[in-house]
Specification:
repeat, Histone H3 K4-specific methyltransferase SET7/9 N-terminal domain, single chain, 17-stranded antiparallel sheet, MORN, 0% helix, mainly beta
Length: 193
């Protein structure tokens, strides 16, 4: 088939010289409406198109096993959607410019989960993390680490409520041991002072 699309309207199957293929609706020579695009490398997209760009709702499946269902804008993942990663993890929530951004829920294949804020594909803002070992943290996150104010509950019954930096107790906090004993005071990189 020819790859010339000038003036093409309606539903067509088009095979490109690069071995990519589009089966869907055209408007004035551009992909516009519902359509399926297959790349030569095995990646596939089925969904809405507007002016030759993925726009609206769509399903993208990459050759590496990752899959995304959700909103697209101007050929990028933008809005609400669900990503299934090739390592077994899943994310559902807000996206901006192909990155997790806004509110979202991430579940890793080991059973650990995070609910909360994301910015530029990392945990940033307020959030709650539940690890598969029974530990739970709720509070501030910066650069994927507990940083700011937060509370950690450990599976053995102990807990810490206070200041954090890079995933460590740092600043003022209250630690309660599993036996009920409490320590109120300062911490420096996970050590009482």
């Amino acid at each position: 088939m020819r790859t010339e699309t000038k003036g093409l309207n309606g539903k067509h199957l088009l095979k490109y010289n690069c071995k990519d293929e589009y089966d869907g609706v055209f408007l004035n020579g551009q992909k516009h409406g519902k359509g399926k695009y297959k790349w030569a490398n095995g990646d596939q997209y089925y969904g809405d198109w507007k002016n030759d760009y993925r726009e609206g709702k769509g399903h993208m499946r990459w050759d590496d096993g990752c899959e995304y269902y959700g909103d697209w804008q101007n050929d990028t993942i933008e809005g609400k959607g669900q990503m299934k990663f090739d390592d077994g993890g899943e994310y559902y929530g807000d996206w901006k410019n192909n990155n997790r951004e806004g509110k979202g829920h991430m579940k890793w294949d080991d059973g650990s989960e995070y609910y909360g804020d994301w910015k530029n594909d990392i945990r940033e803002g307020k959030g709650q993390m539940k690890w598969n070992n029974g530990c739970e943290y709720q509070g501030d996150w910066r650069q994927n680490n507990q940083t700011g104010k937060g509370q950690m509950k450990v599976a053995d019954g102990s807990s810490y409520d206070g200041d954090w930096i890079n995933g460590q107790k740092h600043g003022f906090g209250v630690y309660q041991a599993a036996n009920g004993e409490k320590y109120y005071g300062q911490w420096v990189f996970d050590k009482k002072i």
